[in-house]
Specification:
The chain has 14 helices and 11 strands. 42% of the residues lie in helices and 15% in strands. The radius of gyration is 18 Å and the shape is globular. It is α/β, with parallel strands linked by helices. The protein folds into 2 domains: 224 residues, TIM Barrel (Alpha-Beta Barrel), CATH 3.20.20.70; 76 residues, no CATH class. The relative contact order is 0.14. α4 links the parallel β3 and β4. Bound molecules: flavin mononucleotide (FMN). The site of flavin mononucleotide has 30 residues, from β3, β9 and α9.
Length: 313
């Protein structure tokens, strides 16, 4: 594959980024993806600061290739996480779920490459204005938190591409080489993949979670919790309970009902009925638990075959 703006920005072989994921992407997943030629990201969202530092240190030992971290700005301890990033000389930071103006300048002063995740053109423009090096534009199909606009990846990428000049990474619904080619034809310079890596061997999610992902069919996930922060999850018992509860309770009661442990329960502890199970729509095509290296090799091979067979005369 030829190098492009994204492979050059991160100094990686393939323009495939493994999205930072709470309870999923520790140093094992991030280093495996980086060793396979993509860019692995440690997901700090589920880690206390000292645990986060430990994962960064272990990742440095597990790979000599570039890796990064994801910092969602909705969680507490953000100041501490940013200090650890600087102290540990992490070179790449993906921020998400917050205002890119808050930390971009500070991180860039320390020579860090900064990328911000957005779900709309409006926020992509704000991120570009804040001075980030690239944006991830994430469509409505994606697992985890997402925008209220419900823009699909197929619409979001050309919309953002029209207006920004910095490199563009597409996310949401991409799990195959053909999907990767499709978004690159639409104008993306690279892809961020979440769901397929969440079900990989090196993912720290519970085996029950991974197996439930393989069973997920078309229509089994939904973007919900728009009152608080929209998030896509599997429609399990917990989801049904949540829908019933939200009908006749206030937002603060809903927040209390959710608690902090629901996500840990679903993803990390494997309580597939009572826990929150974040995953993207594309789970419907994921049918194996594979290593990160197999995922990347498979995506690249399918991408290359698709380039040869699909291009039109
Ligand atoms: C289980 C899970 C947890 C996630 N956690 C985070 C997170 O902590 N921070 C973040 O920016 N995105 C998070 N995401 C989004 C991913 O990083 C990625 O952008 C998204 O999964 C891409 O869409 P896909 O699931 O269709 O591949 C999460 C996604 C999943 C499936």
């Amino acid at each position: 594959m030829k190098s492009n703006r994204i492979t050059k920005l991160f100094n990686i072989k393939y323009p495939i980024i493994q999205g930072g994921m709470v309870w999923v992407s520790g140093y094992k997943l991030a280093s495996a993806v980086s060793n396979a030629g993509g860019l692995g990201l440690i997901g700090s969202g589920s880690m206390y600061p000292e645990m986060f530092r430990e994962h960064v240190q272990k990742c440095k030992k597990a790979t000599d290739k570039p890796f990064g971290v994801n910092i969602p700005m909705i969680y507490p301890n953000i100041e501490e996480l940013i200090s650890i990033v600087i102290e540990e000389k992490v070179k790449i930071v993906f921020t998400s779920a917050g205002n890119p103006k808050l930390y971009t300048a500070k991180l860039k002063e320390h020579g860090i490459t900064v990328v911000h995740v957005v779900s709309s053109l409006k926020f992509a423009l704000k991120a570009q204005e804040a001075g980030v090096d690239a944006v991830v534009a994430e469509g409505f199909e994606a697992g985890g938190h997402n925008g209220r606009e419900e823009s699909t990846t197929f619409t979001l990428i050309p919309t953002v591409k029209q207006k920004i000049t910095i490199p563009l990474i597409a996310a949401g619904g991409i799990a195959t080489g053909r999907g990767m080619l499709a978004v690159m034809v639409l104008g993306a310079d690279g892809v961020q993949v979440g769901s397929r890596f969440a079900a990989s061997i090196e993912s720290s999610a519970h085996q029950n979670f991974k197996e439930r992902v393989l069973e997920t069919k078309e229509g089994d996930t939904m973007l919900t919790l728009k009152e608080i922060a929209p998030v896509r999850m599997i429609k399990n018992e917990f989801f049904e309970e949540l829908v019933r509860f939200s009908k006749d309770h206030t937002v603060s009661e809903l927040k209390e009902f959710l608690g902090k442990r629901r996500l840990k329960k679903g993803i990390f502890e494997g309580e597939t009925l009572e826990g929150m199970m974040e995953i993207g729509q594309i789970a419907s095509v994921i049918d194996q638990i594979e290593s990160s290296q197999e995922i990347i090799e498979d995506m690249i091979q399918e991408y290359q075959e698709a380039v040869k067979s699909t291009l039109f005369e």
